[in-house]
Design a protein that fits this description.
- The structure is a single chain.
- By secondary structure, the chain is mainly α.
- It has one domain (14-105).
- The chain has five helices and no strands.
- The protein has helices at 2-11, 15-39, 44-53, 56-72, 77-105.
- The longest helix has 29 residues, at 77-105.
- The radius of gyration is 17 Å and the shape is elongated.
- It starts with a helix and ends in a 6-residue tail after the last helix.
- Keywords: Signal.
């Protein structure tokens, strides 16, 4: 039984790997949404509102992974949640800025 428990623990992804994986999935979703929004010639204000509502599953997985990593590192639940919310907001701000840049230059992101 002990050997099984050790093997199971060794097979579980590390909290850092979970953050990396969920970050990649979240940012891919945001990038795909931005590209579709640019193709649809969505306005900046509309994009900002839509961005907060899109990629919910991916955002929640990323946020949960950050909280798990921070808690494993000894942060309180409140500190971990604040960090996760801050990182999600940073990605939203980054994609809003990118959207504005692409709109102004009338260009599209590379695939």
């Amino acid at each position: 039984m002990l050997v099984f428990s050790i093997l199971l623990a060794a097979m579980a992804p590390s909290p850092a790997a979970a953050v990396d994986n969920s970050r990649a999935v979240f940012t891919k979703c945001l990038r795909d949404h931005m590209k579709k929004s640019l193709e649809a010639k969505m306005g900046e204000a509309e994009y900002e509102l839509a961005l907060k509502e899109t990629c919910g599953t991916e955002r929640d997985a990323f946020r949960t992974a950050i909280i798990a990593l921070d808690r494993a590192d000894g942060d309180t639940a409140a500190e971990a949640a604040e960090d996760a919310d801050s990182q999600v907001e940073d990605y939203h701000s980054t994609f809003i800025d990118k959207f504005k840049d692409y709109t102004e230059t009338k260009t599209m992101p590379a695939d």
